[in-house]
Amino acid sequence: MTRLWPDLMPSNSNAFFAAAPPEAPGILAIDLDQLAANWQALRDYVAPAQCAAVVKADAYGLGADRVIPALAAAGCRVFFVATLAEARQARTLAPQGNILVLDGITPGASEAYTQINAWPVLSSLAEIKEWGQEGVQRGSPAPCALHIDTGLNRLGMSEPDIRALAGDTHLLGRLDIRLVMSHLACADEPDHPKNAKQHDVMRQLRPLLPNAATSLAASDGIMLGPNFHFDLVRPGYALYGGQASKGRPAPVKPVVQSFARVLQVRDLAPGATVGYSASYSAEQPRRIAVIAAGYADGFFRHLSAAAGETGGFVAFSGKRAPVVGRVSMDLITTDVTAFNDPSVVRGDWAEILGPTITLEEMGAAAGTIGYETLTRLGRRFHRVYLERDGDI
């Protein structure tokens, strides 16, 4: 009988394990109630500023079709996506919401934005002129946002271009600029001098477009303090329970947990090797659990561990089991020799991510960040969405 390691799981764990079909190699459990609570906690934290939600990349991999309606029901009215395709989906899921497209417009695409009432975030004078022409064809200016580069040097208008725009009354008359925004380069490092420099640039340029709201802070920027909140904040990673800042933690809790099945348990004699390239060799008798997850499921190959090395972990009943050998596309091998009461057996569920192993820890062990970890999780796993006090 499959055991659920109940001391590890939330109170509704039996329900979400029972909801998984027996053939499912893994489960990705997404708590929509906690997602909504996170957004509301951030909204209250930044008041009187408004709180938007960043739902790009399929809501950071968790499923925009479920995440956006949950956030809209919680009260969110402003959603940021990256592409026009994402904006089309968001419009169907949040008909009354304001949808902003961070990547702006590509040449010739302006009409497609107005058709779904999406606001492009414009980052260059070329985009602005094209969007202004769209307003002429419509007969009235179309809403948009402007991105100012305050020091990140990715997308964004330079200070000279912003000043030129502010002085061009003809071009401004073709635009309905609702928001002026920028993005912080070092928000996860509260003491980095770049934060204050970017803040000061935004404060200096803000009066040039006085009728537009201002936004500077995303998830980590929120925790830099009220001076960074301006009129609107744009949390993404924090909504899903991420804690990337090296300073004050955000008032949020984890939203996602991931588990994979044990497919087989093997006993190794001294000298036996495990996995590709025989990179791990048992120095003593070891017991190995083979788990149905791999780099195709977001468990990074960098979490592999050769003999004498430390790689990634899974967990059973809150106790960690180290990865041994190479992580492959579909399988992980972990050392469960220390698990005797109870022993790990075929059919058990291994925690990939959850109460024992955080997004940040998993990302750091793989030499990356929690953001990347989150967006790559469990593409082949059975998804369970928890809401309304544990109903599925």
From TrEMBL:
Sorted alphabetically, the Gene Ontology BP terms of this entry are: D-alanine biosynthetic process
This protein's UniProt keywords: Isomerase, Pyridoxal phosphate
Limits of the Alanine racemase C-terminal domain: 255-386
EC number annotated for this UniProt entry:
5.1.1.1
MF (Gene Ontology): alanine racemase activity; pyridoxal phosphate binding
The cofactors required by this protein are:
pyridoxal 5'-phosphate
| Highest taxon of the lineage | Bacteria
Active site at 56, 276
Q: Does the keyword Cytoplasm apply?
A: no
Keyword check for Isomerase: yes
Q: Pfam families, per this entry?
A: Ala_racemase_C (PF00842), Ala_racemase_N (PF01168)
So where does substrate get bound? 154, 329
UniProt pathway annotation: Amino-acid biosynthesis; D-alanine biosynthesis; D-alanine from L-alanine: step 1/1
Q: Which GO terms describe its cellular component?
A: cytosol
Q: Which residues carry this modification: N6-(pyridoxal phosphate)lysine?
A: 56
Q: Which reaction does it catalyse?
A: L-alanine = D-alanine
Q: Which family does it belong to?
A: Belongs to the alanine racemase family.
PANTHER family reported for this sequence: ALANINE RACEMASE, ALANINE RACEMASE, CATABOLIC-RELATED
Q: Which NCBIfam families match?
A: alr
Please explain the role this protein plays, according to its UniProt record: Catalyzes the interconversion of L-alanine and D-alanine. May also act on other amino acids.
This one is known as Alanine racemase
Taxonomic lineage of the native organism: Bacteria, Pseudomonadati, Pseudomonadota, Alphaproteobacteria, Hyphomicrobiales
